[in-house]
Amino acid sequence: MRIRIDHRTTYRYDAPASSLVQALRVTPGEHAGQHVVDWRVDSDIDGSFHESRDSFGNRVTMFYADGPVNAVTLSVTGIVDVSDTAGVIHAEETLPPAAYLRPTDLTRPDAGIVALAERFAGETPLTALHELCVYIYSEMRFEVGLTNTGTSAACALAEGHGVCQDFAHIFIAAARQLGIPARYVSGHLVRDEAQEAAHAWAEAYVPELGWVGFDPTNGISPTDHYLRVAIGLDYLDAAPIRGARRGGGTESLEVSVDAAAAMRQSQA
Length: 268
Description:
The chain has helices at residues 111-118, 125-139, 153-159, 164-177, 235-238, and strands at 2-27, 34-43, 48-53, 59-82, 88-89, 141-142, 161-162, 182-189, 199-206, 210-214, 226-232, 241-247, 251-261. Helix 3 links the parallel strand 6 (141-142) and strand 7 (161-162). It folds into two domains: 2-81 and 240-261, Immunoglobulin-like; 85-238, C8orf32 fold (Roll). Helix content is 18%, strand content 44%.
């Protein structure tokens, strides 16, 4: 599938910010099953961009702007060809699988996570992961506005609701409790309507297959409707945009994402 992305993030400040710095993990990498045809990151104010890669191999675009800044819109547009690999990911790796066993504050297990993992302890790793993915999809309620970026997997599981970020964190925490390396993935999912955020899912390491994707929000492994952008131990490592500023007072945020199937041009 050819996927077209239009991702816009607008920050507004009730007092001018004297400077700001934004780290954008919004540019997808190339791997088997994913080819970037065209990609652009831009801003509606003057500033400078610097490209690098982080320890996970994610492409990072740093944006720097001097004030006064009352508002800024960061736009991401592009086209990527994606093929269905049954969820199996063959990408260049910068870290060994064992690095993704380390718990974080957002994925640290409690008694609830331990009990969840124990449900699948007698299964083979691949079977356990598929059953865990379907269980979270079936038992958790998708509800917007009741959790935030600081909500842990343990808290979301106990409350029984959350968004894709929370579902991914629960999956990751339980997989690691089973001794299976697991990581967070941020990206996009093609849908029929515009969205207010990017999507998130997880990947887990299966020895005979390598890294395999699981989307507990939808109870499936990623297909060619999924565009993989960044990975990490949890949301904080793979968040599309994180930043800092001087001044600016209270900040408001508006995000719009249009991830749609794009027509391929026919060759004459």
